[in-house]
Amino acid sequence: MWSRGKKRSKLGKFLDKNGYTQTELSELTKLNKSTISKLCTDASYVPSGTTIKKVMKALRMLDSNLKPDDFFDI
Question: Which CATH number fits domain 10-61: 1.20.1250.20, 1.10.357.20, 1.10.260.40, 3.40.50.620?
Answer without folding.
Answer: 1.10.260.40
